[in-house]
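Incident review: delayed structure delivery

Summary: a single-chain prediction request sat in the queue longer than the usual turnaround. Root cause was a stuck worker, restarted by the on-call engineer. No data loss occurred. The affected request and its eventual output are reproduced below so the record is complete for anyone auditing the incident later.

Affected input:
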Amino acid sequence: MASHLVFFVFMLIAAIVPAIRATGKEFIVGDEAGWGLGFDYQAWAYGKKFHVGDKLVFQYYPGAHNVFKVNETGFQNCIRPPATEALTTGNDTIVLATPGRKWYICSVGQHCKKGMKLFLTVLPQAVKSTPAPYATPYTPQGV
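Output delivered after worker restart:
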């Protein structure tokens, strides 16, 4: 009976651990500086590993800035997409749903041209290997 309980607890833990990673890691863009002028976002992103399922949180004063997801051309030339695509709450969360390159800009005034833009590469979801469970051989009662 005790072996069944141990097996159940182990299986429960094995089911929960992958779900914890599936929620992803949260990155506050710019850390304490947040999303604003006068910060090097490429230096901030350098060395960080972003995976599918992770979240970017852009924090700023509403009305002072915005966030647009753009393509590489939009990033290089600071081209703003239609205004309906703007994130403007001041606490915008973007879930990194697919692997690949991602580009973000602020389109207020000349903010993008002054360096308020972020480029990063999203890696496939990190898979953490778990050790194989210890298998106890089944012995039928009365044998």
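Verification: The helical segments are 2-22, 41-45, 72-77.
Action items: add queue-age alerting; document worker restart procedure.
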